[in-house]
Amino acid sequence: MLALHHITKRYKDKTALDNVSLELDCGIYGLLGPNGAGKSTLMNIITGNIRPTEGEVWWENTDIRDMGERFRSLLGYAPQQQELYNSFSGRRFLSYMAALKGIPKKEVGDEIERVLSYVNMQEAADRAIGGYSGGMKQRILIAQAILGNPKLIVLDEPTAGLDPKERVRVREQIRELAGDTIILVSTHVVSDIAPIAKEILLIRSGSIIDRDTVEALCRKYGESRDLEEVYMHIFGEEERHVETDSL
Ligand code: ADP
Ligand code: MG
Questions:
Q1: What is the pTM of this model?
Q2: In this predicted model, what pLDDT tens digit does every residue of 9-36 receive, in sequence order?
Q3: Closest ligand 1 atom, CA of 157?
Q4: β-pair type (27-32, 182-187)
Q5: Domains of the chain from N-terminus onward
Q6: Measured in angstroms, how far is the CA atom of residue 228 from the centroid of ligand 2?
């Protein structure tokens, strides 16, 4: 359904993505790798926000560059940074995003109620986003990503900066999204994604180094007990250089 063909992204002397080819059908996929691996770059290319240096992204049988509005209407995207409109209320932010997505005016009211109740944010909907906790901000970001029932949902580090309880809550909300949809979730925290992912895509230095089910990855990498061990086995050295998880 979604296919990446030989995607490369270069920034001057830096290769952020190196010849990535990938096909995804319905289900939840975890894009797992340390900071700087290329997760956000890959997501920005899939969502059409940045252009690859080389390669193409196809939806069904069409290059997304030829789809224009039609691609936007089937896409839900929650970017990594929480650059939300702090003075907006949650509801106003959602109605602004619904307008950008081209959701018909007469459907907007019901649709906003639907996504608010989905992320359990009805009560806070009329308060300013600036006063939300980190978890509430992430939930409003997820709510806008699922406006209009998108077929492709891309969530860039939806659990970044959350406390353990909030992480589990967001994870379980993502689990409930599964259905007739492709859901791609990036993280560098194994426990945020391992319990809900159909497959894990391991990304390192701009390459997808492996993709498989959690069980298969554990078998492949030396009979590891869990994916956390696999992750430390592959990325341990890199992760030790990363001090914070907010990047
Ligand atoms: P991740 O999301 O996995 O942390 P990114 O996709 O943000 O990784 O970054 C991948 C690599 O590309 C990093 O080395 C980063 O420094 C580099 N990079 C990302 N965006 C830019 C940019 N606009 N200009 C130059 N280098 C960039
Ligand atoms: Mg990132």
A1: 0.92
A2: 999 989 999 999 999 999 999 999 999 9
A3: 2
A4: parallel
A5: 25-51+68-74+151-247 (3.40.50.300), 84-150 (no CATH)
A6: 20
